[in-house]
Write a structure and sequence with these properties.
By secondary structure, this protein is an alpha/beta fold. The chain contains 13 helices and 13 strands. The protein has a seven-stranded mixed sheet with strand order 12-11-7-10-9-8-13. The protein is globular.
Length: 344
């Protein structure tokens, strides 16, 4: 039996989810002769101890003590502003790192991190979980197989049922960086093409406090790809019907919709149509439960040398470049050219 020990920094909402998914990895990996154990830390020590006890994990009081305890991989689920130093600490420890998106608050802050990782030969996987969602995977398979023909239109939607706390939004970097960056990433990943221009608009008809911290509660971006293909990326914090994440892909041969199932957060206006009949998802954690599990399994496989990195820091920064351009367009009211991606 081979043992893998993962360290987790940060046990807030998404950190707890990752902790539970790590704890459940043994049901998948033990039949392969692999045993996974977890150690975690958080500045909220009492909460971290409670989660550790619940999962049978170890608790360490500091990041330094966690890294010194002998880890095979580090999982970072803290606030965005802490990502750069924690990524660097994991790389310095000589272990693979998984970090929730983004690499840093913006592209300018991300580039020194990329340089640091490259100079030291580090391995860092960034958490863009949609790359592991069954619907997106099937859409990419169909596109790569030529079943859709050439793409003429892409329409992506990411809508929260209710907004997160205003305190979070004040430091999130804005709706495009917080939510739509996932759509920008998946559009690049699916098509294999770069987004070269963004034109964005936004509005605030909900809580005035969202506007007061410099964000919008609803936004739409028109994106142009390097081959001239057009797409749209919409987002909202106030989708009362449920958490709604979809991607419509229209091609010269066929069209596909990711996220169109019995849990889709909308109803038909047509007479006699009962679809969808299921209960809409309420949060991103429900919508992407399987994707998050598969993502963490992929990190374990990366540690074991069984797969290539499924989402590099360069991939994540390329999506962040588009998000930064969308934010700039929102603020200026003009189309914005996206900077060239960082070469791998």
């Amino acid at each position: 039996m081979k043992d893998i020990t993962l360290g987790l920094v940060g046990v807030g909402r998404i950190g707890v989810m990752h902790a539970r998914n790590i704890a459940s990895l043994n049901s998948v990996l033990r039949p392969q002769g692999i045993n996974v154990s977890l150690r975690l830390t958080d500045v909220a020590a009492d909460h971290a101890r409670t989660i550790a006890a619940e999962l049978g994990a170890g608790f360490l009081p500091t990041v330094d003590s966690l890294l010194a305890s002998g880890l095979d991989g580090l999982v970072i689920a803290t606030g965005t502003g802490t990502h750069p130093p924690l990524i660097q600490a994991g790389v310095d420890a000589g272990i693979p790192v998984f970090c929730e998106k983004p690499v840093a608050m913006n592209v300018a802050d991300s580039l020194p991190v990329l340089d640091y990782v490259r100079a030291r030969g580090g391995t860092v996987q960034i958490g863009h979980q949609r790359r592991f969602d069954p619907g997106y995977l099937e859409a990419k398979r169909a596109f790569d197989a030529g079943e859709l023909g050439w793409i003429h239109s892409l329409r992506a939607v990411t809508c929260d049922m209710t907004p997160p706390p205003v305190e979070f939004l004040a430091t999130s970097g804005g709706l495009f960086r917080d939510c739509s960056v996932h759509d920008f990433d998946i559009l690049r990943w699916l098509t294999g093409r770069e987004i070269v221009e963004v034109y964005a608009k936004g509005s605030n008809n909900g809580d005035p406090a969202i506007g007061a911290v410099g964000d919008v509660d609803t936004a739409l971006a028109v994106v142009t790809f390097d081959d001239g293909t057009l797409g749209s990326v919409g987002a909202s914090r106030y989708n009362g019907a449920g958490h709604d994440v979809r991607l419509e892909i229209q091609g010269s041969k066929a069209s596909l919709m990711v996220g169109l199932d019995e849990n889709t957060a909308m109803a038909s206006a047509e007479a006699g149509v009962a679809f969808p009949s299921g209960n809409p998802h309420k949060t991103f954690a429900e919508r992407f439960d399987q994707a998050y599990r598969s993502e963490m399994a992929a990190f374990a496989e990366l540690i074991l040398g069984q797969r290539f990195n499924p989402c590099t820091p360069e991939d994540a920064v390329a999506a962040s470049r588009v998000a930064d351009a969308a934010q700039a367009s929102l603020e200026t009211g003009r189309p914005v050219t996206v900077g060239a991606p960082v070469s791998r």
